């Protein structure tokens, strides 16, 4: 984006030069042309409503969708391509500027840079405010003690002037996030939480400077800088949580190919950009390459890893007439694919659109602090103004009336309110980290705490992410070693599971691969075969193994003249899957499975875990539809998934978790990521979330009760600004201590819980973040 447009947006007027917005426009799945804008200054659900109402009145606007997580706004127009004319784009930027928000075309790379710059700025402001608060408070303590003992007026004035020399520049620097936000809000003729903060800090500093010039006993520099420090701490915590969520567009870009190998009509093969490939063109997909566009296989046979689409890690055989999707990974064979969806219209693009819509819808949920804070700013302003006018009406001097009004502003400062939630988030985040859960969203705890239904994906979520040998004990050790050596040299997707069984196995040097069947080599002077049961000559043995492992993929191995063995490769359920499902049911939660996998393995997993509600073969749109149906029925849904096909559902659910082994897109869409091979962190997140939400409500209740008690005293003139500052600081201390009390509660629960060693599998070894070992620690 040019500096001219940025400058124009910042100033609230039209940009200095128009831009051809058609270069930024793209057509969505609804057929409407629109642009994505990165908007600075979006902090809460109230901002979303302000933006949507402010843009809805523009001509030809068909829809406005705000993504709070990414601070992105999508604006769609009615009509044809002419709707993306430069004047329309400029009008949107102008309208946002009038609302107090700077906007520019969305660029994931620029968004990362902006987030980093914001965090660095907040950290610098926090450091300055902390330094100033410590030093000014040290001087203030000396003045307070001296006022009741033997301090001389000259010494007190010196301390006040030194405090002013520290506080004034520190407040001017550290208060920038609040001052700029308040200025933009007032310029747009609206109020936000930063307006009373800025007003209270400014008036406290001005009054303190006047009091210092008059050699008064009291100045309030300490109140101003302490207030900034506490509020900046909450803002830093919010920004840190926001940075955990990476731009989804970057994750999708990693799955897309930048070009395709097109087969022209004359038979020539050329590598061209995706934009140059039209529907009906034929493209060549080599072994090990990702399919660049959706299409139908016209020639060739192979096995395609479709785990990003269906969640099923077992490669799916494809041949002429089989549909393949962009982003899926081709196996051993070369494929000729007839394109059925051009760039921008593939399954990946539809998933991206679904994900954006789901995340925007979730952003509309108003968290606890937002609900309390919406009415807080106007009430505080009205109380302070009424106090000033009331005292003036009763004959008080303007100085006395101003002191009382400032006392009201300070004593009602939302410091405790601002810390009520972040303080609990910090403590709960530490408890979750010890349980193997990493938060992506600041309000995740509040949403997780309210769920009553848990929906699992199967493959990679209820099951381990990588396939393993299911009948290893039934296969002779030397045959497993031979199979591992042969598999290490093969490119077949199932070979990795066999090779991992014996990592130190000797590699053959004369390996010959028969495409689609298997490999042959010599190991220790003895011929060896690895491949399909028919290729190895183990059809009879395969029938017996298939009966014992009906859902497994079968690979046979033969070494010399020894009888062949058949290896069953399957995805095992996570070690504690049954126990976790039982724990969830014991807590009164409904449990279901939504999977893109085949019906047979989904039904088998559901039966093993005792889950009656399950569905197989569901695509991303169907997952969202089922979750929305649950929500429409009044349920609060927690989605747990790991694949590309789960990402929109993760965003659509009220709350979501994803394993660390998930694709990066799923991790970005989820509220939290859990570590390890066990599901116990799901229970930990629910228990900690519920406890944390109760403490948040306690803190907010205390903050409101404090205001109900303190405000009448301040309005009556029974409290000075100094007393107000002490009361404000004490209220902040109380909510912080209450949050720390939660940590001791969680730790005590862990110490008193059942034998932790019993929850750890044999041979697991020590795990610093072993979620199962800490399952008892997080019970409230």
Shape descriptor: elongated
CATH-scheme architecture of the largest domain? 3-Layer(aba) Sandwich
* First-last Cα distance: 50 Å
Helicity, as a percent range: 40-55%
CATH class of the largest domain: Alpha Beta
Based on CA atoms alone, the radius of gyration comes out at: 32 Å
CATH superfamily label of the largest domain: HAD superfamily/HAD-like
Largest sheet: 7 strands, mixed
The tally of domains stands at 6
| Low-pLDDT regions | 1-17, 82-87, 245-251, 361-366, 748-780
Structural class: alpha+beta
CATH domain topology of the largest domain: Rossmann fold
Tally of DSSP β-strands: 27
Strand content range = 15-25%
Per-chain topology:
Layout: H1 3-11, E1 26-27, E2 33-40, H2 45-56, E3 61-67, E4 72-77, H3 86-98, E5 102-105, H4 108-147, H5 153-174, H6 176-187, H7 194-213, H8 221-244, H9 248-255, E6 259-263, E7 269-273, E8 282-285, E9 295-299, E10 302-305, H10 307-310, E11 316-318, E12 323-324, E13 329-330, E14 335-339, H11 347-363, H12 368-374, H13 376-393, H14 398-411, H15 415-434, E15 437-439, H16 444-448, E16 453-456, H17 458-462, E17 468-469, H18 477-488, H19 495-499, E18 512-514, E19 518-523, E20 526-531, H20 533-536, H21 539-548, E21 553-559, E22 565-570, H22 577-586, E23 590-594, H23 599-609, E24 613-615, H24 620-632, E25 637-640, H25 647-652, E26 655-659, H26 664-669, E27 672-674, H27 680-715, H28 721-752
Parallel strand pairs: 16-23, 16-25, 23-24, 25-26, 26-27
Antiparallel strand pairs: 1-2, 2-4, 2-5, 3-4, 6-7, 6-8, 8-14, 9-12, 9-14, 10-11, 10-13, 15-27, 17-22, 18-19, 19-20, 20-21, 21-22
